[in-house]
Each structure stands twice: as structure tokens, then as C-alpha cells.
Amino acid sequence: MKRLLDISGAVALLSVSLPLWVCIILAIRVSTRGPAFFSQQRVGKGGKEFRLFKFRTLLPGRENST
């Protein structure tokens, strides 16, 4: 029951927020060149590496090294 509630809540939230995501992607694409998403390799708990995806807020190629 909990799993069903989690999945249905996630689907509902994604479907409601999808128009906002599209607007953000379009704003990034119209204002600058390059991809709308930024990806970076990070180190998580226990030293396990994972790939992080987020909306790009800097110009392409200007990765924050901190």
C-alpha cells in the first residue's frame, strides 16, 4: 500500500510540475546556447559515485569547482 501511494504521489507531482519544467527549459534555451541540464559526477555516502542532473544556471563550460 505504501509503495502504491509513493508511486501515485510521484506521478501526480510530476504531471503537475511538468509545465513548469518545460517553461524553465524554454527560458534557458532562449536566453543562452547549450543544454538546459547540467550534469556532474559527485561522491555520495560511503564514497559511492553518482551522476547529478540539474537545470543549468551558469554558462556552458564554467563549472563551479567548489
Summarize the structure.
By secondary structure, this protein is an alpha+beta fold. The protein is built from one helix and two strands.
Kindly describe this structure:
The protein has 66 residues and is α+β, with helices and mostly antiparallel strands. Helices cover 45% and strands 21% of the residues. It contains 1 helix and 2 strands. A two-stranded antiparallel sheet has the order 1-2. Strand 1 and strand 2 form a beta hairpin. The longest helix has 30 residues. It is flat and about 45 Å long. The chain starts with a helix and ends in an 11-residue tail after the last strand. The mean pLDDT is 87.
Please name the defining characteristics of this protein.
45% helix, flat, alpha+beta, 2 strands, 1 helix, two-stranded antiparallel ribbon
Task: Break the fold down into its secondary structure elements and pairings.
Elements (H helix, E strand, L loop, with lengths): L1 H30 L5 E7 L5 E7 L11
Antiparallel strand pairs: 1-2
Strand order of the largest sheet: 1-2
| Class from secondary-structure proportions | alpha+beta
Number of strands: 2
Number of separate helices: 1
Rg of Cα set? 16 Å
Compute the separation of the termini in Å: 42 Å
Q: List the secondary-structure elements in sequence, H or E.
A: HEE
Characterize the main sheet.
2 strands, antiparallel
Q: Taking all residues together, what is the mean pLDDT?
A: 87
Assign an overall shape: flat
The helix fraction, in percent, is: 40-55%
Strand content: 15-25%
| Unreliable spans | none
